[in-house]
Design brief:
six-stranded mixed β-sheet, alpha/beta, 20 helices, 24% strand, Rossmann fold, primosome, GIY-YIG endonuclease, ATP hydrolysis activity, DNA-binding, 724 residues, Replication restart protein PriA, DNA replication, DNA binding
DNA sequence: AGCACGCCGACT
DNA sequence: GTCGGCGTGCTC
């Protein structure tokens, strides 16, 4: 009989000891009694003795052996995360698994159909010329057997053609185990010729052996994706696995389709929260068995099992969505770097506007800087960026006359325009012209946003909504004025001004279900839209070939935000949305409405000068002792009673000061949204000049924090926070 | 986090 | 007398 130490999904920093009679392997899932119920846990350690009194230790109920154990490498990665982010080990390990592995429901692997050419299949010429789809499919099947998904990348009507080919006796279906590592006869990409610059990047990465972190700084349109394709191709040829991390879920289906089409016969799986439990399990297991050569996923896929991992790519590495904002508050980019180090493989961080953290590391030599400076399509030029001084121009409901005229030109030329405004709704606040009443949310410190579509005032923080009042709730005055504009108002203005134009609004309200956004995208690509109005949803994603004008409406607020990263974020957002304008044959133009056209941020943006911008900002950050020159942790608390929240944080601060470590402990301050859903929120910032010092402090300070908090408070510790 | 145990106010 | 309020404490 031996003791196993098991990780359980409970908010306690420890493992739990159980006895087992049968042979048990590290990383295996077990059902154990816990309190009055049973839980699924993962065996983290096998030991001979326990520190606990014998009578307290219960036996394992059952060992689950219908799935492969978690590798000790992944367990080590999860242990590291638990320690680095100071989060309970069980709540780190268990939620990293697909939901099906967190339950005791039996796991079965269903076989799937693949298709292959029969011996008697006719040469390609015998298939009628007009049956292009069938011909493409036969060509692909001649390389190696494929599944339906792969065939669909060469033939839209794959299902129907397949039926025809099977009935003709040329193709047959056969069962395969999706977890089996099929021999990869052909995994080649439909590779395009690389520019010299791109080739140099590919060479630099492929010539590395062992761990190395590369920062690929490539302007929009410089062909980063083609570099990824070539690198992935190399890895697949040697039988390795690639992890490709991408920011958002709404980007994944297109990207998946794109990479499938580039690697028609490789096994690619996606991992993101949009998958069903069964799909997620299957994809995870395909990664675990090595059957999947490419794993494409959002931040959670950084915890996928990858036995043959040979390369990690983090695309849009600056994107804030790589940071999880609840539970284990990890940065998938940073975890990926640790993982690459652990596995001894290269990692490539790609971005047109790298985070200052990564850029700084590339400048000081911790990472290797790689650059793509030219647009891959030789004659494609960067868009011309111009400013409209919003205080010196005639404005129609927040849109300048100049911009409206330019939109009109695009309409007559059959080109598209995009108006970018980072606010949804009609107006961000409603005001009484008589007494100055503002549409405050009764539950939050924020304002309720006016939505004219359903005549409601809605709080974007807590979801509370009311009907738009006809009289001022304070003074009964009948005149209430919408202040500022959001996407709906801009859309309204455009409809009035261009009644014939086809206008499309793209924001979270207009794309309720995820199918809609897909439909909208194809409408835009088919040039069935003249003007798009939208939030940052429009900044990301694939190219819109007919788009030649981007208008940006009053983005200034980020320039005087209390968040020191706001300007960094705005710059990359504007760079990204600007990059949507213009193609090889049609130059793009960007018009920015601002009160501060001389602000250094806009100057650098106009010159497409990321280097200059980064240099000036890094200098400021260094002077002010901000990241990346300092390392931070944020303790947050929220609760119903203001005094409790502040008392807790002040006690925590006092406890920290007493430890007398070389860290700076700032004051307890209200969170940027001081009240949300009736909960008072405040925070305490800790800063040190090295990761090591910060971690040393947290190791002593953090364990006591839970005892200080009453159960009425919700607290969290955020390491390397992005939000303030 | 749950979910027990435990000690004080208004009810048949 | 008891039903139930939510404060404290433990989970291998």
């Amino acid at each position: 009989m031996q003791i196993v130490r098991v990780a359980l999904d409970v908010p306690l920093p420890t493992l739990f000891d159980y006895t087992v009679d049968d042979a048990v392997v590290l990383g295996q899932r077990v059902i154990v009694p816990f309190r009055r119920s049973q839980l699924v846990g993962v065996v983290m350690e096998c030991v001979m003795f326990s520190e606990l009194a014998v009578e307290k230790i219960k036996p394992v109920v059952r060992i689950l052996s219908d799935s492969e154990p978690i590798s000790s490498k992944l367990l080590a990665l999860l242990r590291f995360c638990s320690e680095y982010y100071h989060y309970p080990i069980g709540q780190t390990v268990i939620p990293a698994l697909p939901a099906r592995l967190r339950s005791d429901k039996p796991i079965t692997v269903k076989h799937e159909y693949h298709y292959r050419l029969l011996d008697g299949a006719p040469p390609i010429d015998l298939i009628p010329q007009r049956k292009t789809a069938a011909r493409n499919m036969v060509k692909m099947l001649a390389l190696q057997p494929c599944n339906l998904q792969q065939l669909k990348t060469v033939a839209l009507t794959a299902s129907a053609q397949l039926k025809w080919l099977i009935e003709a006796g040329w193709v047959e279906a056969f069962e395969v185990n999706p977890l089996a590592c099929l021999p990869r006869m052909h995994c080649f990409a439909n590779a395009h010729k690389l520019t010299d610059e791109q080739q140099q990047v590919v060479d630099a990465v492929t010539q590395t052996s062992g761990y190395r972190c590369f920062l690929l700084h490539g302007i929009t349109g410089s062909g980063k994706t083609e570099v990824y394709v070539h690198l992935i191709n190399r890895v697949l040829q040697t039988g390795g696995q690639v992890l490709l991390l991408v920011p958002e879920i709404n980007l994944t289906p297109q990207l998946e389709h794109y990479f499938l089409s580039r690697f028609p016969v490789a096994t690619l799986v996606s991992l993101h929260s949009g998958l069903s439990e069964n799909e997620r399990l299957k994809h995870w297991q395909q990664a675990q068995s090595g059957a999947a050569g490419i794993v494409l996923g959002t931040r959670l896929s950084v915890f996928a099992e990858l036995p043959k991992l040979s390369l990690i790519i983090v695309d849009e590495e600056h994107d804030a969505s790589f940071k999880q904002q609840d539970g284990l508050r990890y940065s998938a980019r940073d975890v990926a770097i640790f993982r690459a180090k652990q596995c001894g493989v290269p990692i490539l961080l790609g971005s047109a506007t790298p985070s200052f953290e990564s850029y700084h590391n590339a400048l000081n030599g911790r990472y290797e800087m790689l650059k793509l400076t030219g647009r891959a399509l030789a004659d494609a030029n960067l868009p011309e960026i111009k400013f409209i001084h919003s205080k010196q121009t005639v404005m129609v409901d927040g849109i300048s006359e100049v911009l409206l005229r330019e939109i009109a030109h695009r309409i007559t030329r059959g080109e598209q325009s995009l108006l970018f405004i980072n606010r949804r709704g009609y107006a961000p606040v409603l005001m009484c012209t008589e007494c100055g009443w503002l549409s405050d949310c009764k539950n939050c410190a924020g304002k309720m946003v006016l939505h004219t579509k359903d005549q409601r005032l809605r709080c974007h923080h807590c979801g509370y909504q009311i009907h738009v009042p006809t009289l001022c709730p304070e003074c009964r005055h009948p005149e209430l004025l919408p202040v500022g504009s959001g996407t709906q108002r801009v859309e309204r203005v455009l409809i009035d001004r261009f009644p014939e134009a086809r206008i499309l609004r793209v924001d979270r309200d207009s794309t309720r279900n995820k199918r809609t956004w897909e439909a909208m995208r194809s409408k835009i690509t088919a040039n069935e839209v003249d003007i798009m109005v939208g939030t940052q949803m429009l900044a990301k994603g694939h190219d819109f070939p007919a788009l030649t004008l981007v208008g940006i409406l009053n983005p200034d607020s980020a320039l005087y935000s209390s968040d020191f990263r706001a300007a960094e974020k705005l710059f990359s957002q504007l760079m990204q949305v600007s990059g949507r304008a213009g193609r090889a044959d049609k130059p793009g133009e960007v018009l920015i409405q601002t009160e501060f056209p001389d602000h250094p941020m806009y100057r650098c943006l106009q010159q497409h000068d990321f280097e200059g911008w980064a240099a000036s900002q890094l200098a400021e950050r260094e002077m002010a002792d901000f990241p990346p020159f300092a390392f931070q942790a944020m303790l947050r608390a929220e609760g119903l009673v203001e005094a409790d929240v502040y008392a807790y944080l002040n006690m925590a601060k006092l406890a920290g000061v007493k430890l007398n470590h070389p860290v700076e402990i700032f004051g307890v301050v209200p969170a940027s949204l001081a009240r949300r859903a009736n909960h008072v929120r405040a925070q305490l910032l800790i800063q040190a000049n090295s990761r090591r010092v910060l971690q040393q402090f947290l190791r002593v300070w953090q364990p006591g924090l839970a005892d200080l908090a009453s159960n009425k408070l919700r607290c969290s510790l955020d390491i390397d926070p992005l939000e303030f």
